[in-house]
Specification:
There is one protein chain. It is built from eleven helices and two strands, in the order αααααββαααααα. It has helices at about 5-10, 15-45, 50-60, 65-75, 85-95, 115-130, 135-150, 150-170, 180-200, 205-220, 255-270, and strands spanning about 100, 105. Helices cover about 60% and strands about 0% of the residues. It is mainly alpha-helical and about 280 residues long. Among the domains are: about 15-45; about 50-100 and about 110-175, no CATH class; about 180-220. It is elongated, with a radius of gyration of 27 Å.
Length: about 280
């Protein structure tokens, strides 16, 4: 509904000057909060300037957006030399599989209560990565959710995502999606050996089981429909453009496509430098 239509609709109700004053005060308060939020985002971008290269590396991970990448860098830092291995980083962050086994019985185990802010950022990124089509994290989530449930599967994806962050920041390389065919072949071999172990426990002869394993491993994998190729990811925004404001003073939320279109139009509108 447009502003003139809203004004006409409000004229037909019992609204006095005090009501209008209250609405005006509420709008001014919301505009103030929105401007403070914009200043905070600009401050975050300014503080990220020394870590711009690492920040843009994290943006190449599926599910990791601007605020999430900034939160991960703020909590872990860009130098991974302080963590000997990826497992030590996961232990420090509290994103480790729990182990509560006593007397041969396994009980429920929870992750450690460590860095809450990093956990929130990783969980948000894991949900986004689990919904991104045909990625390593989505395949892991679909495989783990059958036995663990959604919440535990997301924490497991957090562990895998944090190990990926460690490798990228250590080697200073962008995210590279592994070959799905190699991952499927590795998963097939693992399932073959798992079910062979179950057959041995049920009383199958070891020689016959070994022959069955060799025959299955030598056989070609069944053809599966390949996923449709996805469009290559667009390069991250080096710095988000200044937002435009509406009639009431609020920022107009824009999608990344609209932001890129506005940046392209602003670059085209810039005057060319004078010739010699």
């Amino acid at each position: 509904m447009k502003i003139p239509q809203l004004a006409d609709a409000l004229q037909q109700h019992q609204m006095n000057d005090h009501h209008r004053w209250l609405i005006r005060q509420s709008i001014e308060h919301l505009v103030l909060l929105d401007r403070q939020l914009e200043e905070l985002e600009d401050r975050i971008q300014t503080q990220l300037e020394p870590y711009r290269a690492s920040y843009e590396l994290l943006l190449t991970i599926p599910g990791v957006k601007e605020h999430t990448a900034a939160s991960i860098l703020a909590e872990t830092g860009a130098d991974m030399q302080q963590f000997p291995t990826a497992a030590s980083l996961c232990k420090w962050a509290g994103i480790c599989p729990g182990n509560n086994r006593t007397g041969g019985k396994s009980r429920r185990a929870h992750i450690d209560k460590a860095n809450t802010f990093l956990l929130i950022a990783l969980v948000e990124a894991s949900w986004g990565a689990a919904r991104t089509g045909d990625t390593r994290f989505q395949r892991q989530f679909q495989r783990w959710v059958r036995n663990l449930g959604k919440k535990k599967a997301v924490i497991a994806v957090c562990h895998s995502l944090l190990r990926t962050v460690y490798a990228m920041l250590r080697d200073k390389t962008p995210y590279q999606e592994p070959d799905p065919a190699v991952a499927l072949a590795r998963d097939r071999d693992k399932r073959i050996r798992h079910h062979a172990k179950q057959l041995l426990q049920l009383g199958m002869e070891p020689q016959a089981c070994n022959e069955l394993i060799d025959r299955l491993l030598a056989a070609p994998a069944p053809d599966k429909p390949r996923p449709q190729p996805t469009a290559p990811a667009s390069p991250p925004l080096a710095r988000p453009p200044k937002p435009c404001r509406g009639a009431l003073g609020f920022r107009a939320r824009q999608t990344r496509l609209q932001q890129r279109r506005n940046m392209r139009m602003s670059k085209n509108a810039e005057p060319s430098p004078p010739g010699p």
